[in-house]
Each structure stands twice: as structure tokens, then as C-alpha cells.
Records
---
Amino acid sequence: MKVFFSGSIRGGRELLSVYQYLCTFIVSEGHEVLSEHVVDPQLEDIESSMTEQEIFTRDMDLLGHSACLIAEVTIPSIGVGYEVCSAVQRNMPVLCLYRSGSHVSSMILGNRNVVVQGYSIREELDSIVLGFLASLQVKYRDNS
Amino acid sequence: MKVFFSGSIRGGRELLSVYQYLCTFIVSEGHEVLSEHVVDPQLEDIESSMTEQEIFTRDMDLLGHSACLIAEVTIPSIGVGYEVCSAVQRNMPVLCLYRSGSHVSSMILGNRNVVVQGYSIREELDSIVLGFLASLQVKYRDNS
């Protein structure tokens, strides 16, 4: 399955290692992360040679080619909020993950169009992500 | 004109005085800010008695009753990103304001569906907001 992964870039990179862990796990389960640039430590250098419009268009195009969106929403980020809303508008399944105890927006916590899960230790992410992706595969199988 | 004002809540309240300045200015020009709760210093106390779904539904309802959205996007915020995208999806005019030099998301800077303006001193906000609102009034007059 093609997955769009969303995490903070200009909002702050403190959780980059969690983003990397998540993307590696998703790929190890046989899926493809179309937005792998999000977990590149050199991303800001690479994007400095692109225009803002090129970055926007790349991300919206990749979202349009993805089957679902998985977002880490712990760090406040306008881009992540924008991408979650874009995925909801496209009727894509959305999973939002956050560190338990963080101040997550009501636009995520109160949103019936997204699956929201808190986690305390990194290892919990495996079962949450597996459960989400498995539920989609069941849905696709039942619909086909 | 009914205006939805969007600013960071759980992402951080450091620019609350700027949000208050903006809303007071918009109202002083004869418009109505439907989301005035965003600039209430006691907002988090008030919202603590509401469910996350109630907050989400209130904000989306108010957005649906607004003619345009004005967002202060300096502080990273998932809610602000979500609301800007929701307004774009509804074909609403959107103005995004940011302090010059801040790291604004490409989902804002590279987005042809929103008007984006940096400012250095607070007084610049008056002319930016006035220009945006006047352009909408001209558009509405020409279409009526």
C-alpha cells in the first residue's frame, strides 16, 4: 500500500528519529512511503533549492497518489494540519499518532474522520500502525 | 463581513496580543469575527468543559458561516493548518499573516489559493488586513 507519512519539518525536527522509526517500520511491512523526504535529515538543504510552490505541488501530488496518510502530530506544525485536512477531504483513511500527554489540537482529537492514537513508548507504534494498515487491507478486500 | 480568525491555541499562546490586536482592528472596521474565542485569554479554561468533538464542531460550523479566513501563521499549529485547508476547500478567500523571518510552512508559502503577507511591525497589519478586506468587498460588489 502507498502511504503518505506526515511529520513536522519547519515546526521543529525534535522527533525526527520517531518519524524515521515509523517510516522504516511501514516499509519493513511491505508498504511504500511516498513522502520519504520527510525523514531525510538533509531535507531542509535539499528543499532550499526548490521554490515554495514546487514543495507544495510535490507534497499534494504525492498525497494524491497515496492510499492513506499516517501523521505524527505531537509537534505543532501547520503543514501537518494542512496535510491531514487535505487527506480527509480526499476521503483517505488517516491515522494520527501522538506522544501521550502532549497538547494535540481539537482539529485532530475531536475529528471523527481520523483515527487518533496516543503512545507512551516507541514499541507501541508497531501494533498501532499494524492494526491501522490491516484494517484498511480488510476494507479493500471486502470492497473488491 | 463575517470573518473567521485563526491563531495558535495549543501550539502556543505567545502571540495572543497580536491576535487580539488583529481581531480588535477587524471589528473596528465594521466586520464581525465569528471565532472571537481564539483571542480569549481564558479560552483553555472555557474549553476544558467542552468535549474535543464539541470544539471541532463549533469551529467547523463557525468557519462555514464566515465569508473569509484571516490566519496568523507564525506559531506552528496543527489547528491553524487544518482550518486554512478547510477554508481553501470551501473556496473561501484566505489571508495568512506571519512575522517576517519566521519559518512558515510551504503549505502556506507555496499555496496559490491563499494570500500570504509577512510583517515586521504590528502597524503594518492594518494596511494588509484593510487591503485584503477591501479586495473582497470589490469582488462581491462586482459579482452582485
---
Amino acid sequence: MPVPNALDEARQELALANKIAHHEGVLDTFGHVSMRHPGNPNHYFLSRSSAPDMVTVERLVEYDLDSQPVRPHNYTQFSERVIHGEIYKARPDVMAICHHHAPAFMPLLVTGTDYVPVFHLGAVGGIKPPYWDQRDEFGDTMLLVVKPEEGASLARALGQHSMVLMRRHGVTVVGSSVPDCVYRSIQSCRNAEFQVRSMMIGKIASLSEGETKLAGQITGKTTGLTRSWEYWAAQIAKTGAPAGRAGKTAKRKTKASASRNAKRRR
Amino acid sequence: MPVPNALDEARQELALANKIAHHEGVLDTFGHVSMRHPGNPNHYFLSRSSAPDMVTVERLVEYDLDSQPVRPHNYTQFSERVIHGEIYKARPDVMAICHHHAPAFMPLLVTGTDYVPVFHLGAVGGIKPPYWDQRDEFGDTMLLVVKPEEGASLARALGQHSMVLMRRHGVTVVGSSVPDCVYRSIQSCRNAEFQVRSMMIGKIASLSEGETKLAGQITGKTTGLTRSWEYWAAQIAKTGAPAGRAGKTAKRKTKASASRNAKRRR
Amino acid sequence: MPVPNALDEARQELALANKIAHHEGVLDTFGHVSMRHPGNPNHYFLSRSSAPDMVTVERLVEYDLDSQPVRPHNYTQFSERVIHGEIYKARPDVMAICHHHAPAFMPLLVTGTDYVPVFHLGAVGGIKPPYWDQRDEFGDTMLLVVKPEEGASLARALGQHSMVLMRRHGVTVVGSSVPDCVYRSIQSCRNAEFQVRSMMIGKIASLSEGETKLAGQITGKTTGLTRSWEYWAAQIAKTGAPAGRAGKTAKRKTKASASRNAKRRR
Amino acid sequence: MPVPNALDEARQELALANKIAHHEGVLDTFGHVSMRHPGNPNHYFLSRSSAPDMVTVERLVEYDLDSQPVRPHNYTQFSERVIHGEIYKARPDVMAICHHHAPAFMPLLVTGTDYVPVFHLGAVGGIKPPYWDQRDEFGDTMLLVVKPEEGASLARALGQHSMVLMRRHGVTVVGSSVPDCVYRSIQSCRNAEFQVRSMMIGKIASLSEGETKLAGQITGKTTGLTRSWEYWAAQIAKTGAPAGRAGKTAKRKTKASASRNAKRRR
């Protein structure tokens, strides 16, 4: 049996990430998690058209930053892949992206309410991350981000934030690694859910700026991410899903991707 | 083993559709999905009395448009099958119908609140689809649509829309194919859930007319429906349910029904 | 293998009923469904102390109407069994009782809001069924109905209704058979859930008195109860639960209990 | 096979407790249940860094009351273990502690709303248990309780209550045994959920002081805790989790821990 190399491991982690984001309620039949090629910053990996729970290593496609497949294929593709390509162009520090329409966020997106971190783990989203309304620049559309200029506009709205809220559509979250991006997506969804339910009974309190900055470092300074990834991977393993070597190797893989990313960030 | 013909495949798809609509929270112990006979526009298929999750090909009954069984049988039947027969009479373009009482819609139906598309996938329901109140024309009833004139009245209220809301009762959704109808039912339920939760915290924004028209074409112009059906069928296959050849053949079947419908529409 | 007799079947149905009420969200670790002895109106069956999902035929105890065990035993018992005994005394037409603390009802019980039928299947609970507050007659208690006089007081509040709401505690539902009682419990919970969610976004509409009376007969006039019981029993059978011969015999058993009850009612 | 001793049983019960609290929605990927060493009041057991559902006997670490491991090890640890150590110091009667961030409580913690017992089983939390805001004494932090003085401050806020609410963070619950602590955690979460949903539709009623005192004794005076633990353990056993000998021995173990605690309390 050949020794798996770093790229194989990263691709397995990405397939697993799509399943985890699905299993934890961030993705449903739609939405996707991508990753920048760990060895080539000008390419990224994203599944061909597939429900997130059915993403496998075999379904991953390598794209250039114009979101064109590096190798021709006959599979159907996600129409919104420019979200990924344009953000990877604009943000060299970003190593993974999750685009989703999680129910937890919908009340915010439908009413135009700002996201506010209401508990320590919600600090991953920042205080009042930016909104983007496709209508502002492009008028009436089918609300899918399919043209390069639409993706570029979204990337501009994202700026240096870790997520951007898309009116009447969804959310796009970025991270410094695949696990980091998935963790941010899951915890910001939980925060959004808590925020919305809290607004139904009273006036909500926000973390202060200082608390948000400090609590935003929990992921890096505690064992929370490793612990979470081990658990999430074990949940997927229970379902018998084929992608990724969930469970035992999760910890190592998380570290692996962390070191890969450490090298890439300057 | 004989080669399955198009009718067999369509019937398997219909049994699967009932299970999917159940699994995705549209149907519970009540409600039903029917399909127009792919080879005879004057007949339709609907299960005999059965919880949706227990519908099998064997339980399907062929009805004429007066909702009388084509072949006599001794099974108990749904009392509300005139919903299906009368709509098939009034709308030659309709190939499948789902009648449901999904929890997601109940707050709208109980308060008489209009359905509003609040995110792109909710465009499948249109802007403010019509309401029908059985009491208006028929006074006090048990609120089941059991008489032909009640079904005909409901069909008139539906008009050329893709769904009609029934006060203090439920919803009836139509589609150009079985997967299209199930997809509309599921996505409109999700939109209703998002709309209701959004109303609890603020003022909701609607898709514009232009956005609704364009986003309403997502099903036809993207890979979303195929992707969804593959996923939904795989979920049913996991439960060990006998109906339909879920999973591998799902894509082909979806295409098959699409071409069947294409031929039928003029 | 001996032929199972009617009493054996009824006891199996009762064990299954507890599991169904649990599986459908009416009961959790607490609450219980009892049945009047089909051959002796002065006795009833109730599980010994047991979470509803763990009730088996072997755990059922035969009680007299003073809620004393007919045969001495050493098992721990439910402290609230007088709810059952006192209602069976006061209501000879009642053949089964469910006492529960379903989450769906809690917002009503905590705020003292009347139950209102907001969709056809919610008619099983009637319009504004009575409230009972243990504090009114008995002052400060642990809010458990443990004394015969407390049970008798609750039975007086129930009167000829099909359910009584207990402030800051729960609900007690009666029925003409075990399946009828379980069906009323489940559908009234669903109605309560819809009512509560509807109240969060607007003014709710009630079924009219005429609609409530007519829709209250749906259970007897349609195939809904048989269809539901078949489905619920199949769900329990999937979990591998030992009690009751779920599934295939469910329909026959439902009929059996119906005829038993028909004989008993005069 | 060696006869399991009391400590082995207690440790198995603790591992099981973490899984139960997870399965019942109190814990997710974060939070933890600890227990005072049954034979040494100056030590306590807590898992090394682990998602609650993955806690096993092997992962348990023995700590002194300064939250330092009794035996050196190389595993990662929870950063918030001072919550446990400082409360065990301040409260000799406390035998088990659960720290959680349950969704049910979040609307209270985010809006600063008092917890109010709204049904009999919610009496386990008392009337308006104290709040603690880390910001008051420590200014901007990452909102994790990691320093001994932070843990001691939290313990002072807890006082003689059975739980303390932590603004924008979570809840810490104490008990006289592991099952008692888990039971209180679960039932107070249910109460919080009911309270929040009730507040969305009207004015809530509280149990009176007398009712709260009396209903707070339900755990000790009825079979509710034994019944619940048997059920919860059986649920975990179904999932195939390795920790604890769930099910058959649960009752005995519960008694065992009760007698252990009885001895320890003076």
C-alpha cells in the first residue's frame, strides 16, 4: 500500500469537510466547501456538482483562479464556483471557503439584521461583518453568483473580514485552513441561531470589542478545534461515509493542514 | 428478468417521491404525491390509503380524472383524492401534485399571512400565491376536500399558479414532473419556515418580481434538481425502504421523467 | 404456540402505545398511557415505573380503580396513577388515558393560554378545553397528582371533555380506545405547536364550532387512524423494540380494540 | 475476571454521564461533567480534552483541587477545569459538576433574563438562580474561566445555589451525585426552553416559592431519577458507545453512587 502523500490527505480532509458541514447543519442539498491547492496557490479544489453529503475525493475537481477546470471533464459543475475563485484571487491568506444557506442565518439575511457575537464561540464571525446585496450592483438576477464580476464584487465586500452576509441568499465564510473554515462556519451558525432566538424575547448583549478579539483567538489557543474535528469526523464515520479517513487520523490531519497553512502564510 | 419499461420507472419514481417528501418534512402521516399517467393524460396514479413513508409501487392505484379507480379494488382510499383529479382536469400542463400539511406552512395558514419568497430557492412558490378557504363556498365542513365540487373550487383558486394555500388546512403544490413537484414542495416549505422565523425578529424583505421570475428558473437552468434528487434518493436508500431504485438510477430516472414530460407538454 | 387471546393483544397494544407516544414526541422520560381492562371495567392497566420507551407487556400492572395493584408486587410504581383511576371512575366511556408534559403544550400551560383548534386535525382537542390548577384547591404542592382527592378534582375539571390542561404541569387526554387516545394526544400536540408558532407572527384563526364538531369526526369517518397506527407501529418496529407485534398485525389489533370498546360503550 | 470495585463503577458512571448529557442536548462538542473522587474529597475526575460523546473511562484524569493532574501525562486538557476545582473547594457537599453551553439557555444568557421554574420538573434550578458576568471583575477576557481566581469568583457567585448562569457564555450546575447533577442539567435545560418559548407568546407564570421547594424534592421522593437514568443509559447503549455498562447495571450504579454520597455528606 503506497504511503499517502500530503495532497491526498488534504483532498480527503476537504471531502470530509463537506460532509461535516452538512452533518452539522451548515449545508443541506446546496452549498460547498473548497480549499486552495496546498502546493499551488493559483489553483483550488471544489467538488463537481454534488450534494455536500455525497462529496468524495473522486468528485473533487482542480480549478484555476478563473474557476476553469485544470483538466477537461464532462461532469456538471457548481454554477457559483466564482465565489471561490474570486476570493482566492483577492485574499492570498485564505486557504478554504464555505458558501452556505444555513437556516440559522436566514432570519438575519431576510431582515437585514447585523450579525452580533452573543457568546464566546460566536466571536469567530466578528462584530457586524459586512453585508452584500447582489441587487445593488447587478439589479435583478437569479441571485446566484455566477459571473466573475459578481464574484469579484462579493470578494470586495468581504474585504479582510472572515465572513460576508448575502441578502436574501446566504453566507460565505473564509478560513486559514479547511478545519478552521468549517469551525467558523459551524460556530457562527450557532451564534446566529442563539442571536435570533434571543431577539425574540428581549434586548441582546454583544461581546465587547476586546472580548471579541480575545475570544476570536480561542481556536488557536485552546484544544477546541482539534477536539471538535475529532468528534465531527467520528460522527461521519458512524454514518459509513466513504470519504476521508475519519476518526483516528483526524488529529494528525488537522495538524498537517495547519502546518501546510503555516508555510503558505507569510 | 424483464427490462423495466417507462411506466414501471415512473411508478417507482412516484413511490420514492412520497418517501422523499416524508423524509424531508413535507408530509408526515398524512398528505400525498400523485402523478398523471405518463401515457394517458386522462388517468393519474395515487397510493391507496397509506402513510407516505409506506407507499410502495404495489400500493399505487390508477384513477380516472373523476377520481374513480380504473380497476375495482377492496383497499381503503384517500378521501381527498378529488384534489388531484380536479386539478389534473383543469391544468393539462400539470404532471404531478403534492397535497400536504407541513408544519413550516402552518403559521401562515393559521394567521392568513401571504407567502413571500425571502431567498432565491423560495422563488418556486411565486409572490403571494392564492389562498382558498373552504368555508367561503361550502360553510362548515370537516375541512377535507372530498366532493368533486370542492376539488373543482380549489382548482379554480389555484389558477395558473404553482401552489394554493388552504386556510386552517394545508397546501397543494403542482409541478411539471414528479421531481419538479417534490422540489417545489420542499423548497417552498423551507422558504415558509425562514419567512416565519424572520417575521419574529423584524421586517422581511421580498425578492423583487424580476428576481422571483429569474430565480424561479433555477431548477431548469442549473444542476440543482438533479443534485437534490440524487441526495434525497440516497437518504431513502439508507433507510432500507423498498420502493424505487434509489441512488444509482436516480439521475437517469429524473431525466426519464423530464423527457416524458417534455413530450406531453405542448 | 398458544393462540394469543384478546387480553394479550390489548396489553401488547398498550405497551406499543407508550412507545408510540414517546416516539412521536408526546412523552419523554415521563408520562404514561393506561387502558381500562377490556374485560373488567373496574380494573385498568398501567406500567410500573418506567420510561415510556421501555414499557413492555411484562411491566404492565393491573390496578383497581382506587389505583391499588390487584396482585401484590415489589416494583416501584408511578406516583401519579390516581390520575388514571379517578378518571376511569368518573368517566365510564373512557377506555384509555394519556398523561403527558409535551413541549408543544408548555407555552400554553405556562402562560395560561387557551388551546384553540387551528387546523382540521386539531379538532380532536375541542375548542378551549378546561384548565385545572392544582394550587386552587390544594395550595402549594409538588405539583404531582398523587392523592385520590387530587385525582378526583382533576377528573371533575375534565368533565365530559377529551382533555384537561394542567397549569405549570402537563395535559391529560382521554379516548375511546388506546389508538384513539394516542391519536388525540399526538394531533393535539401538533395543533398546540402550530398554535404557539402562529401566535408569534399574528392573530390566529380558530376552526368554527361547526368545523370543530365535523372535523372532530375525521378519526371515525376516514382511514386516518388506521393509516397512522400502521405507520407509527412500523416506526417502532424499526427501532427493534420488543413490545407489541408492531406492523403487520397493527391494523387487526386496532380493529380488535375498536370492537372491544364498541361492546363496552352503551 | 476481577470484580469491579466502587471506584471503577463510579468512573464508568462519569464517562456515561458525559455521553448522556451530550445525547440529551446539554453538551455538544464542548462542556464537561466532573465528579469528586468518591474516596478522596480532595481530588476530582474530569476527562482530558475530549468532546463529551467521546469521553471514556480511559480518558478520565484525576485532578487535585488546584486542578493539577495527580499523575503527570502528555494529553491536552480542558482549559476551564478550574471551574470544577474551585467549586469543589468551596462546596464540600457538591459531588458532581456540569459546565455547559446548552442552546436552551442561550436566550436567557444573551438577554440577561432570569431563570424561572415554569413547570414542576424545572424546580431543580430554583427561582432566579444567580448570574455571573466575567467582565465585572476581570474586564475583557476570552470569556473562558481559566485562572484560579476566575474559578473562585464563579464559585462565590454560585454560593449555595444549584446552578449559576454565566453571561454570554454558559451555565454551571452542581449536584449531590453524578446522576443528580445530570438530571438537574437536563431538566433545567428543558425548563429554560419552555420558559423562552412561553415568553414569545405571553406573560409567564412561575412556580410559587412553596411549590418550588416541594417540587425540588421530586428527585429524592419519587422514582423519577432511577427511571430517567435507566432510559438515558439505554439510549447510549443503543448507539454502541463503549463507556460504562449502560442499561442493566444502571440502576444498581445509581444506588451505588447515592450511597457513596450519603456517606460523604454529613
